Fold this sequence. Notes:
Elements: H1 2-37, H2 44-66, H3 81-116, H4 128-131, H5 133-153, H6 164-172
Helix pairs in contact: 1-2, 2-5, 3-5
Amino acid sequence: MQLLNRYIDLFEKFSITILFAVATLLLFSNVVLRYLFDTGLIWALELVQYLFAWVVLIGAAHGVKMGIHLGIDILLDKMPAQLRKNVLTLAVLCCIVFVAIVDYQAFVYTLRIYQWGDLTEDLQIPQWIPYVAIPVGLSLMLYHFIVLGWEIVTGKRNNIHAHEAQAAIKAID
């Protein structure tokens, strides 16, 4: 399990970094081509949109793992430990159900796009290739929610998100 987590973490960080860098360089190159040479890459904007979709969806999944999504826990901090654990378990279970439903629907929709055989407008690649980012990102997110839920149930974690103030204090010490 630890090895799988390590590979997923490496995949997410590598994908986010490389795709974001490629999109940034492509946009910069296209601006330079436009303003200095009065030309440009017609397909650049479409590719950048697809790259950013991948970055956002994989980044959202990685955000679940890292606990960087916004969370308000003022009420949770006032609850007894067992009630807090139950509420957190219920919250993660709701997230798992929601993401699983949306992931399934995204997978079905991507299969339909594959069957239609449409091509993207500028790149002229199969339309399903950029759309597969949705089920991939949501599947990663689902995996991280399942791991998070397991850690809460087994007592390894007692929160869903990271506490910035606590992290800052630990960094100082």
